[in-house]
Write a structure and sequence with these properties.
Elements (H helix, E strand, L loop, with lengths): L1 H16 L2 E5 L16 E2 L5 E11 L4 E2 L1 E7 L3 E8 L10 E7 L19 E5 L9 H4 L11 E8 L5 E11 L4 H23 L1
Parallel strand pairs: 1-3, 2-5
Antiparallel strand pairs: 3-4, 3-10, 5-9, 6-10, 7-8, 7-9
């Protein structure tokens, strides 16, 4: 059991190490993600691991909320959101919310279209680093993995300034040839077995 857990952790670490950084906010304020929920920063993601690194919270001049949007292309799905090791949460948890579409219509004070407009949200914790948080984040009616389309992301921390990293894993929704072949052979085997049973 310990060996399989260790192997899984190593696989996550390797995946994070190979992730392409698609956005990184600079400590000097460069590449600052939008603070406007109706005009999120566009972040381009491709198939594979897409790492977004940023900071949020209150460094003394008000809460810095981050809003960005991205597209999951046709023929692909958002398979996972892995909390990157560069993440640090002050206090108990920080917040991430995701909404289908190019904007976040829910306001931080609870107005707007209401929380049900979100695909889902999560108060993520330090002990979730290295884990896929997408299943826990998604509402019960939201499909996992998330289908192709445009998504807007909202990240915030109400306490002091913290850093975060999310690895958005985008995968093809079309089965790989080997998997498709195995599926076809399995179905053919079931069909043959059924035919034989019917002839008896």
């Amino acid at each position: 059991m310990r060996t399989s857990v260790a192997a899984a952790l190593l696989a996550v670490a390797a995946a994070c190490a190979q992730a392409t950084t698609v956005w990184q906010e600079g400590a000097d304020g460069t590449n600052d993600l939008s603070n406007d929920r109706l005009a999120p920063t566009t972040v381009t993601m491709g198939l594979g691991h897409n790492l977004v690194l940023g900071t949020t919270g209150n460094a003394g001049s008000g809460i810095d909320r981050d809003y960005f949007r991205f597209d999951v292309p046709a023929g692909a799905v958002l398979e996972a959101i892995v909390l990157h090791p560069d993440t640090f949460v002050s206090g108990d948890a920080s917040f991430i919310g995701i909404q289908a579409g190019p904007q976040v219509t829910v306001t931080p004070t609870g107005g707007g279209a209401g929380v049900t407009a979100l695909y889902g949200f999560l108060h993520y914790r330090n002990d979730q680093i290295g884990q896929n948080i997408l299943p826990e984040l998604a509402f019960g009616t939201s499909p996992v993995p998330a289908p192709a389309g445009t998504y807007a992301v909202w990240v915030q921390e109400l306490g002091g300034e913290v850093r975060y990293g999310f690895d958005f894993v985008v995968a093809s929704s079309v089965p790989e040839p080997a998997a498709a072949l195995r599926l076809a052979l399995g179905l053919a085997g079931l069909a043959c077995r059924r035919f034989v049973l019917l002839r008896r």
